[in-house]
Design a protein that fits this description.
Number of domains: 1
Number of strands: 0
Shape: elongated
Radius of gyration: 16 Å
Number of helices: 4
Structural class: mainly alpha
Helix content: over 70%
Largest sheet: none
Order of helices and strands: HHHH
Amino acid sequence: MTWRNIVLAIVGVWFFVSAWALNPMHSSAYVTSAIIFGLLILIASIWGLFVPGSMVWRYYLTALFGLYMGLTPFFYSFTHFGTALWITMLAGLIALIGGIWQAVVGPKISGSPEHRHHAA
């Protein structure tokens, strides 16, 4: 269990909630994207909490989902809504960085011999 998985789970929940809370244009395309990718980020991060160190691909997907969600203000033309723009981009950036960080650093930490404790 790492704090990065918890942060990614919070970001996933935020994107899910943002479908209703942060949809300035009432765009059905944004709602669909936020629900789907928010849930996928949430599922991948919770999965990482219970099955750490294996299947690194899920973190790369999380990073890709974060990148996509961070760019949604440009895809769905709500860049003129400053608050929605910056919150969405920041949450997407957090998912992007957290996913890549967990993919690169996470397996090394959980799988390294010096972090395993054996009874003598």
